[in-house]
């Protein structure tokens, strides 16, 4: 059986990069937090849109039936 590849390390890496960039901009006196506080719902909208898109892609490809995968290598 093959396990689907997990995206957790990629997601956490991106989160850390974004947080680091925000703190760096704050150190250079760029007012990031006020803008971020006003626009945080955009993150939820994008996240929901990605979930819908991924769900539609999975539905479009259809469930994989047992025994229909690639032939085993000899």
Explain what this protein looks like in three dimensions.
The protein has helices spanning 8-27, 32-61. The protein is mainly alpha-helical and 74 residues long. It has a domain at 31-60. The longest helix is centred in the middle third of the chain and has 30 residues, at 32-61.
String of helices and strands: HH
Q: List how many beta strands DSSP finds.
A: 0
What structural class should be given to the helix and strand makeup? mainly alpha
Distance between the termini: 17 Å
What would the principal axes of the Cα set say about the shape?
Answer: elongated
The low-confidence parts are none
Rg, Å, rounded: 20 Å
Summarize model confidence as the mean pLDDT.
79
Strand residue percentage? under 5%
Portion of residues in helices? 55-70%
């Amino acid at each position: 059986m093959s396990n689907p590849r997990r995206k957790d390390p990629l997601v956490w890496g991106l989160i850390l990069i974004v947080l680091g960039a925000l703190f760096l901009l704050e150190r250079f006196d760029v007012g990031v937090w006020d803008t971020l506080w006003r626009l945080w719902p955009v993150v939820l909208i994008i996240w929901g849109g990605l979930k819908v898109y991924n769900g539609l892609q999975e539905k479009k490809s259809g469930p994989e039936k047992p025994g229909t995968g690639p032939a085993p290598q000899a």
